[in-house]
Amino acid sequence: MKRLLIEFSESARIAFGALRANKSRGVLTTLGIIIGIVGVVSTMTAANGISNSFQESVSSLGADVLYVSRIPWVFTGNFGSFRNRPNLTLEDVEDLRQQLPPDQIVNPSVQTERSVKFGSVEISGIDIIGTTEKQTLVSTGVPEVGRFLTAFDVQYKRYVCVIGTTMRERLFGSENPMFKTIRIGRSDFRVVGVMEKQGSAGFFGGPDFDSQIFVPITSFVRSFGSANRDLNVAVKAPAGVALDVFEYELMGEMRKVRKLTPTQTENFAINRMDSLVAMFNNIMGVVVLVGVLITGMSLFVGGIGVMNIMFVSVTERTREIGIRKAIGARRRAILTQFLLESSTICLIGGALGLLLALAVTAAINKFLIPASVSPSIVILALTVAAGVGVIAGFVPALRAARLDPVEALRYE
Length: 412
Hints:
Helix content is about 55%, strand content about 15%. The chain is of the alpha+beta class and about 400 residues long. The two termini are about 35 Å apart.
């Protein structure tokens, strides 16, 4: 063991000495590794940030809630099979309430896009959500300022609204939005609350929760109409009841509401958060795989560059290798020396690439999309860099270890 440590330390000393003697060559060799690490790490940090943001956003929708809608959130096959399904109506919601226990939480919601105006500021394409006072019971989002909608607002069709944090910033700036009147479409609504920040699931077509505006569903119908709109119904599972069991029960109750015979297929869908998360994970897995494969090509090119430089280094130092072997150096010592040299070059390139990737990640996070660095990404980047060095340097190191000392000493 002691002999191995002595051989390793001696090989390391010679390897680092060779790197110091050829600084310019080492710097040029690391460029390919730096570019590769920047590409791979930036891809992974962007994917990691998007995934964290998505998970945080969908968690606000409630893990113990089922969502009844006309069309499933995730489906395969022809969309035409769902297109002719009848929309859910407020009458269906009331019938469902009658079928379920009195304390069951059932919350209908409907959505449209309208322009929103306050003073001289006008923003188009804003999500307007018509809902009830039970919205905060089926999601984790609560008002940060003011209050949410009440049963009184819904029953008497009051023109009040609760806005997201992004809407407050875009419409009011630093001004207090409470009890100010904004114009949504052609109707005026008074702001009674501002929701806390919830994030966005909009990277794949999902909603930006902070840009939404909530209004009583009755006022929504009066202002924007209900014809040909898809109504969604959130139903909270009772405490202590497994979601799978409750889904089966809800399916049966909805079949009664829709008056379907045992032989008829469902003309509605029951959705769960885990199906949406699974779809997102599948998409992100493919995106990350493709991104890493594309950016990883530069690592491959960088590894080829390291291998070529190591072949040159072995050729230039053939006589040195012969002298070391002549005075008793073993093959493994020569092999270790050149592997240390190649892996050190790649580790230096990996460290520099990681620093650049952190700067790129900060820029992406500020100007484009959420991006975050985790310790696992840092460890993986450095491990990959070292691995590239070992693989790229193995063949040149093996060639050096197998040199015949007599022939090596004759080399000019």
